Amino acid sequence: MTEAYSFAYLDESTKRMIRRTLLKALAVPGYQVPFASREMPMPYGWGTGGVQVTAACLVPEDVLKVIDQGADDTTNAVSIRRFFQRTAGVAVTEHTTEASLIQTRHRIPEAPLKEGQILIYQVPIPEPLRFLEPRESETRKMHALEEYGLMHVKLYEDIARHGAIATSYGYPVKVEGRYVMDPSPIPKFDNPKLSGNPAIQLFGAGRESRIHALPPYTRVVNLDFEDHPFEPTKADAACDLCGATTSYLDEVIMDDAGGRMFCCSDTDFCATRRAAGHAGRLAPGGEAA
Amino acid sequence: MEDPLSGGFADAPVQAARAFRAALEAMARPGRMQRLAGATPPAPLSVAAGTLLLTLVDDTTPLYLAPGHQGAALRDWIAFHCAAPLCAPEEAVFALGRWEGLPLERFRLGTPEYPDRSVTLIVEPPALAPQNAQLSGPGIATVQAAQLPETAAFEANRARFPLGFDAFFCAGDQAFALPRSTRVEAL
């Protein structure tokens, strides 16, 4: 650290405010705690909520990993990682297993998390009922009264229109049988990893000024129907780089003639597999296309 | 006589960060012991409780001091290091004291729409052992043993969920937390 930043950028009274919010969020899992979100040196929508939570949690001994849709090397991830290298002087890594604190935009890493790790989500709209009921005063009352029928109506309308629950990301969950929570726009493929996770999961929404949390080993249930059970979905293919069949895949358009490939959304998972000798359809030296 | 100006953090951003990380782990894993150090508060305050005050309490959070924790030395120390207004239990965001001194029925427990607007207790039991209660719920893989001053108050607190108080128990430089979401049974 050559520049004179206070450790992790934020001033101490702001950090105390965020820290008190985080403790209440852990005490009432799934409930959205309002906090006095600050302006950060990046625009809303670039993870200001996640950045504030990360700044409040970081210690100098941390090893930080930042991912954007699973990738360590995209603009958002690189700029947030460099922000904390500069303002907190922490070590950074791209390896999920080496990180003590992971800030993520819209993915949960493929490698299982363990105790001692903290996963911090960037959240755009924390209120799962917002698109069904725009008034904050009403959604607060609905949470207070545990009035979640509207959410089931929405999922039912999916089935009536498409024959299946078409919600594919930000899939609503119920936490410990009480609060319905939006897990941020992670693909529903990742939802099963929310429940019973040994790591601490914190969710920060900067523009909406809300923080919610899942303590480790919290019971998280995906909303569904007996005859239309929850199904985690992914592209029906294998990664063309590492050959993985169990990871969440991105589809990449290759040309203007319909050519396409699939690759792991989690770049660390894919690179680790390739380093271990796994090869996919399009990998150099892999099976011929 | 201790100087009320001493005993704070020497390097506040870093020491508060380490202390909060321990407090976060404590609240996330109820009943599990964490080391909380950095402050050297005047008697009768423990190191862990003093460190929690420095980390979480400031001029925006009214603080209730229970009988036994109202001495001039402690009040001066809190006034200088935290600047927290001292208040009646009804207005408290934090409350500090021995378990017997905390008037539980008078604290704020949050509202159905804002359950976070509730008190956080910083309790100073004489010791954190032997274990006499079994905890389960969010943050606990199976069960966790802990030392609690009683179990009835925590069973009632859990029954009110999502309303309720959250508590830290501090002795020496050790502390554990008990959020309202935890189910408590006597061992």
UniProtKB/TrEMBL annotation, chain A:
Organism: Rhodobacter maris
Segments passing through the bilayer: none
Catalysis: reaction(s): alpha-D-ribose 1-methylphosphonate 5-phosphate + AH2 + S-adenosyl-L-methionine = alpha-D-ribose 1,2-cyclic phosphate 5-phosphate + methane + 5'-deoxyadenosine + L-methionine + A + H(+)
Keywords, in A-Z order: 4Fe-4S, Iron, Iron-sulfur, Lyase, Metal-binding, S-adenosyl-L-methionine
GO BP annotation list: organic phosphonate catabolic process
GO molecular function terms attached to this record: 4 iron, 4 sulfur cluster binding; alpha-D-ribose 1-methylphosphonate 5-phosphate C-P-lyase activity; metal ion binding
UniProt-recorded name of the protein: Alpha-D-ribose 1-methylphosphonate 5-phosphate C-P lyase
InterPro entries linked: PhnJ
Top-level class of the enzyme under EC nomenclature: lyase
EC number(s) recorded for this UniProt protein: 4.7.1.1
Pfam families named among the record's database cross-references: PhnJ
Function per UniProt: Catalyzes the breakage of the C-P bond in alpha-D-ribose 1-methylphosphonate 5-phosphate (PRPn) forming alpha-D-ribose.
Family indicated by similarity: Belongs to the PhnJ family.
Superkingdom of source: Bacteria
UniProtKB/TrEMBL annotation, chain B:
GO biological process: organic phosphonate metabolic process
InterPro entries attached to this UniProt entry: PhnH-like_sp (IPR038058), Phosphonate_metab_PhnH (IPR008772)
One Pfam family linked to the record: PhnH
Domain of life: Bacteria
The protein, known as: Alpha-D-ribose 1-methylphosphonate 5-triphosphate synthase subunit PhnH
Species whose genome carries this gene: Rhodobacter maris
Organism placement in taxonomy: Bacteria, Pseudomonadati, Pseudomonadota, Alphaproteobacteria, Rhodobacterales
